[in-house]
Design goal:
The complex is a heterodimer of chains A (109) and B (117).
Chain A lengths: L8 E4 L5 E6 L11 E6 L6 E4 L13 E6 L2 E6 L8 E9 L2 E4 L3 E5 L1
Parallel strand pairs in A: 1-9
Antiparallel strand pairs in A: 2-6, 3-4, 3-7, 5-6, 7-8, 7-9
Chain B lengths: L1 E5 L3 E2 L5 E8 L7 E7 L6 E7 L4 E3 L7 E6 L4 E6 L8 E8 L6 E4 L3 E5 L2
Parallel strand pairs in B: 2-11
Antiparallel strand pairs in B: 1-3, 3-8, 4-5, 4-9, 5-6, 7-8, 9-10, 9-11
The chains are: A mainly beta (109), B mainly beta (117).
Chain lengths: 109, 117
């Protein structure tokens, strides 16, 4: 049940796109289409941004999109905005347990 | 729905950490409920998941020390973590999970628990 692997940090200028990868195994990300993504501003409650790999909860801008290929899921932020600067975590359903990613800090230059 | 964690902010080593999450603005029944923690400077770690009926799933690495329970009449669910050490110092979050606990759609603000003598 190792943590899913994410890049430590990614950055982009306003208006650009950034993509965060989330690599697991055939027991979690690769087996289930239940990957979710969370935005976390320090000191605040994490916020669900994507669920079931590609779905956006109501109120989440369509600049946020998710995908998956094999054992790797990805979150893409298009048209990067200053308020997108935060930590992002993926999470995968794995049957009887859940596993989070190592986290990625997104910096808006 | 709003979730609020409560409990002691300081716990001595080898003792039991106890936290409660109070649910307001929505039902506690028909949902899954979870505890997640974040040590300082580290990532999120899933602790466990519980259905309102009491069925539980725990992180295998913590399973021997974790107990989750629910009180539907008070709209509260609880976490007990026994034999704590400094490694259990973290911000603890309670969260609501969707069907089968596939995603966490509402979170509390988190509460810092420090393990120290």
């Amino acid at each position: 049940q190792s943590a899913l692997t994410q890049p430590r940090s990614v950055s982009g200028s306003p208006g650009q796109s950034v993509t965060i990868s989330c690599t697991g195994s055939s027991s979690d990300v690769g087996f289930y289409n239940y990957v979710s993504w969370y935005q976390h501003h320090p000191g605040k409650a994490p916020k669900l941004m994507i669920y079931e790999v590609t779905k956006r909860p109501s109120g989440v801008p369509d600049r946020f999109s998710g995908s998956k290929s094999g054992n790797t899921a990805s979150l893409t932020i298009s048209g990067l905005q200053a308020e997108d600067e935060a930590d992002y975590y993926c999470c995968s359903y794995a049957g009887t347990y859940r596993v989070f990613g190592t986290g990625t800090k997104v910096t808006v230059l | 729905v709003l979730l609020q964690e409560s409990g002691p902010g300081l716990v001595k080593p080898s003792e039991t950490l106890s936290l409660t999450c109070t649910v307001s603005g929505g039902p506690i029944t028909s949902f899954y409920w979870s505890w997640i923690r974040q040590p300082a400077g580290k990532g999120l770690e899933w602790i466990g998941l519980m259905y309102f009926s009491g069925t539980t799933n725990y992180n295998p690495s913590l399973k021997s020390r974790v107990t989750m329970s629910v009180d539907t009449s008070k709209k509260q669910f609880s976490l007990k973590l026994s034999s704590v050490t400094a490694a259990d110092t973290a911000v603890y979050y309670c969260a609501r999970a969707d069907y089968m606990g596939r995603a966490f759609d509402s979170w509390g603000q988190g509460t810092l628990v420090t393990v120290s003598s």
